[in-house]
Design goal:
Length: 473
């Protein structure tokens, strides 16, 4: 069970991975637990007090469409050092023992961003191994489908095809780059956690490519839901460690193993959550999606998208495609969370819409928690969306009003999964299907010819059996 604390009351569970704030302080913690929290709060104050103003990038100037296209690499847009804070969100809520390790990770990460050799290797690997750039595909029949409902008028829909990356999801962009960081640090073993299995497969493949040993934690429940990905991880030479509970428990377990073997093992964060610098690293390595999108949009219609739509699980594909456009107010950024059985059902994964602020897995962000501060188990038909927290940067984008927040139910996502398959011959992952589901509401509101980009974060072969069971209920 996960217990919580209020940061102002200095009470917390002994493992930072379960530490979060709540509306009501608990008074029944063991002494050792209370003592532990003092150091943690101290760390948070010193390490997280500055606002990372680069997030809004007010001086951002979109490149002219006639400008020569820059070589795709993280160095194209290297950001200034970050404190890990996005407004009041983010930070490094961890025990003392992890501080130096996270600090070292940040230094290596920053150096890698500036190192031309690392960038060249990453650029080559993204091109030749991952298969970038991914197409920005004009979805002609999906566009026609919505126009037909509105007297032939409506937006043009483009799909950013992350489903075509090696191993079938955006997760590979980050997994490969971080595995390269692990190697740079001289580490030979990687641990990670996976929900839908996409991050697990991507990490397993990246580790195989780079000769690193790999252990992936996955809940038995998720293993049952996504058996093909378990087989793939095994095939790729990775050890899959089953855990009880759900994805959050697998995450906790992988962090626990890493924390016990600091200096020997690299924790490969699969999404933009966790203590700084994990969210920033993941965002940085995923932001190639948005940079490509901007360039491709300029080539295809000579401008930027009017709206970019992405599903929000923990936040990595959304931040990956949004980041390039955050400083460009003409581009609407629309995040679609999983409404499960409905936002009022208590069975959903809509953390930003229905959660409140707390600290979990080492950072402050929105969380699904009850009055007592216990984690509320998330639910979605898209297994990869079932996480009770969300990227701190997305919490900031929500509160600043820069990101619009929407949701799609299980039913709506499954409908969209089938609709996109039948109209376009593309099978989106159930996670990505939530973004496609929102087109039902968005398209009738947009003028003729407006340009929408939907992030198709992954391919949905893994979900075919589940959808067929779902349809036969
Ligand atoms: C295909 C796909 N899309 C989206 C997600 C959600 O993760 P995130 O919000 O980090 O993009 C997952 C998670 O496993 C996924 O597999």
């Amino acid at each position: 069970m996960n217990y919580a604390c209020k940061t102002h009351h200095s009470t917390m569970k002994s493992q930072f991975i379960h530490f979060r704030t709540t509306a009501s302080p608990r008074r029944d913690y063991p002494q050792a637990v209370r003592a532990n929290s003092v150091g943690v709060e101290g760390n948070c104050r010193t390490l997280t007090s500055k606002f990372d103003s680069s997030v809004l990038r007010p001086n951002y100037k979109p490149p002219s469409p006639t400008t020569e296209v820059p070589k795709e690499s993280v160095s194209d847009d290297a950001k200034p050092p970050s404190t890990g804070k996005f407004g009041r969100f983010g930070g490094k809520f961890v025990p003392e023992t992890l501080i130096s390790c996270l600090g070292e990770l940040e230094v290596v990460f920053r150096q890698a961003l500036k190192d031309p050799q690392f960038q060249e290797e990453l650029t080559t690997a993204l091109k030749d191994y991952v298969g970038r750039e991914t197409p920005l595909y004009y979805a002609e029949r999906l566009t026609a489908h919505y126009k037909a409902q509105n007297m032939g008028r409506g937006p043009d829909i483009y799909i950013k095809r992350e489903d075509l990356t090696h191993c079938g999801a955006h997760k590979m962009n980050n997994a490969l780059a971080q595995a390269m960081i692990a190697k740079r640090m001289g580490l030979t073993a990687v641990v990670a956690a996976t929900g839908a299995g996409q991050h697990g497969v991507a990490t397993a493949a990246a580790c195989a490519k780079l000769g690193l040993s790999c252990t992936i934690f996955m809940s038995t429940a998720d293993m049952e839901k996504q058996p093909s990905n378990v087989d793939l991880m095994d095939l790729l030479g990775t050890k899959v460690e089953p855990t009880a509970g759900s994805f959050k428990d697998a995450s906790s377990e992988s962090i626990r193993v890493w924390a016990g073997q600091l200096g020997e093992v690299y924790y490969l964060a699969g999404t933009a959550v966790g203590p700084h610098p994990c969210p920033t690293m993941v965002r940085e390595f995923q932001s190639v999606i948005g940079r490509e999108t901007r360039r491709q949009a300029a080539e295809k219609w000579g401008g930027a998208p009017d709206a970019v739509v992405a599903c929000v699980g923990s936040g990595s594909n959304a931040l990956g495609v949004f980041h390039e456009f955050v400083g460009d107010p003409t581009v609407r950024l629309i995040g679609v969370e999983a409404a499960g059985f409905g936002l009022d059902s208590g069975k959903h994964a809509a953390t930003l819409a229905a959660g409140d602020v707390g600290v979990y897995h080492g950072a402050m962000s929105y969380l699904l928690q009850d009055e007592e501060g216990h984690i509320v188990r998330p639910h979605s038909v898209g297994v990869g969306l079932e996480y009770p927290g969300v990227a701190p940067e997305l919490s900031f984008l929500k509160e600043s009003g820069r990101m619009e927040l929407c949701s799609a139910t299980d039913n709506e996502a499954v409908d969209a999964y089938r609709r996109v398959a039948r109209l376009e011959g593309i099978i989106p992952a159930l996670e990505a299907s939530h973004a496609f589901a929102y087109l039902e509401k968005l398209c009738p509101t947009l003028p003729d010819g407006a340009k929408i980009v939907v992030s198709c974060s992954g391919r949905g072969d893994k979900d075919a059996a589940m959808v067929s069971t779902y349809m036969s209920r």
